[in-house]
Amino acid sequence: MTRVISLGGSIVAPDKVDCLYLQRFIELIKALLTEDREERFIIVVGGGGPARIWQAAYRQVSGALGAAADDGQADWIGIMATRLNAQLVKALFDPHCADDVVTNPEAGDNRFTGRVLLAAGWKPGFSSDNDAVLLAKRFGAKTVINLSNIEKVYTADPKTDPGARPIDSISWEDFRAITGDVWTPGKNVPFDPVASRNAGEAGINVICAMGSDLENLRRILRGESYTGTLIHA
To answer: Which CATH superfamily is domain 2-232 in?
Structure first.
């Protein structure tokens, strides 16, 4: 079975690299590889703090120079942060990860010869969530596990709306009504709008869960009861 995990950059590197979290995450995945010889993992890593810090610097300096920041350039800056994070995680999975970090999920020469495959951002217009969906389609995975800094999807932003309620299960149509369909670099939503549209069209489910709760991730991967939100077709 091939598992796809969209590992939020805010979990890997909220401002700097969370070394203890990475150690525990990799120990968990390696233990599961030992338990099940048929299990394989595709892990797509986001940009996190480095992406936001460098994007903010770009916008600040552009403004000081009297120029408007370009969304495409900001996207490329974020993409480069995802590639740095992914290269780090790939190195830590040695020797299970034999192939190069995937930077174009639609490239015909992508190989998956090991037990773990790492991927990062591709091009402007969407986040690394969309790369996870495209790789799920390519390698026949029916579910993407989206690990971020929220425990569940809410009906609204709980930071600004006291009436916001957590959601256990929601259709793609209803989810997109909450988050919208437009992507902007650094947009803070539970799952990228472009990825959401593509996942819905492909019939791929997404489980949104708290990335720091590794025991909960273990339950998800073992098909047990978990805390999170299932977004489904």
So the answer is: Acetylglutamate kinase-like (3.40.1160.10)
